[in-house]
Amino acid sequence: PDPHTPQDALSARMAFLAEADRLKTVLRASLLSDGSRRENSGEHSWHVALYALVLADHAGPEVDIDRVIRMLLIHDLVEIDAGDHPIHGHNHDAAAQELAERAAATRLFGMLPPAQGAALRALWDEFEAAETPSAQFAKSLDRVQPVVQNLVVDGGPWERFGVTWDKLAQRVGRPIARGAPALWDWVAPRVRAWFDRNG
Amino acid sequence: PDPHTPQDALSARMAFLAEADRLKTVLRASLLSDGSRRENSGEHSWHVALYALVLADHAGPEVDIDRVIRMLLIHDLVEIDAGDHPIHGHNHDAAAQELAERAAATRLFGMLPPAQGAALRALWDEFEAAETPSAQFAKSLDRVQPVVQNLVVDGGPWERFGVTWDKLAQRVGRPIARGAPALWDWVAPRVRAWFDRNG
Ligand SMILES: [Ca+2]
After folding, report:
1. ipTM of the complex
2. What's the CA gap between B72 and A163, in Å, rounded?
3. What CATH number is given to the structural domain containing A105?
4. Alpha-carbon distance B77 to nearest alpha carbon in chain A (angstroms)
């Protein structure tokens, strides 16, 4: 039984939404397509949710696009506490990061009325586990969006982190291809050509 | 009949998504909740879509939340060409703004494969018309989010634009109350108290 009255529930939700605002101050490695500044995780979350809406025809038949969009809206909230960890960055302690993200999920989704907090936590867990078709498609979009941004700004983080084609194909190409093979087929030759010119 | 091959369609969608990135550079009147800078329309679009997901229980029974989320993801794209027009700003030529926004919708959604472009244009038209329950709820969220941000930063644009309680209740309170009466009931006394202290 949910202990909240309707007014309490709404106040809890508004506090959660005010806390979520902080995701707009978490900076990612990626640049905006005009190169003017680094992207933040709030606007990134919007962009990948828009990717899901626009690229729905390229998802497999078992993907529920509205579920993908919901996942992508919440997928990075844990960065409010745990920060963004660039996929090509160094000193990447994956186990410590996972612990920090789980603690963040407990704190943040715990701000909501219990039944709703549990449902959103389950959605985030599903995204993280990347086992369902919807989660795999969501992961593909989350991975392909910075690749596209890097192509548009002609390198960006790839140069800064000394990324090679082989590293990119393994760390990023595989999850993209798993959830959205058509997207990887589209982006791979473009990325390959960039590394052939600059690598 | 859609003249695009699947590869052409995907290229068209990727071009649209790259163009959409520009929404992250359109600045709004609202501040982030830490007061550090103005909010951009990309991160605002994420935040209001998250409002829809989290506040779904406060929508009327005829509201389709996934449709609301889709609307909110695309509702501000026209600002890429037409700019943001603060609701409390001066010299507000509503007819010219509407023309500019319609031209922007034609250009932007026209970048997509025709059937998809028409579907997203219809979704944007539905939001603008604010006649369906889903569009009215979406409009309420779009209007209430900056009010909440202004409360958090203790005024912000209200002071800058010299807003009064009466103006706010009319321009902003009415559309919020129409689509989401419970939200207006929650926020109105808090806003009223702010204007009593500062107005
Ligand atoms: Ca992400």
Report:
1. 0.96
2. 36
3. 1.10.3210.10
4. 11
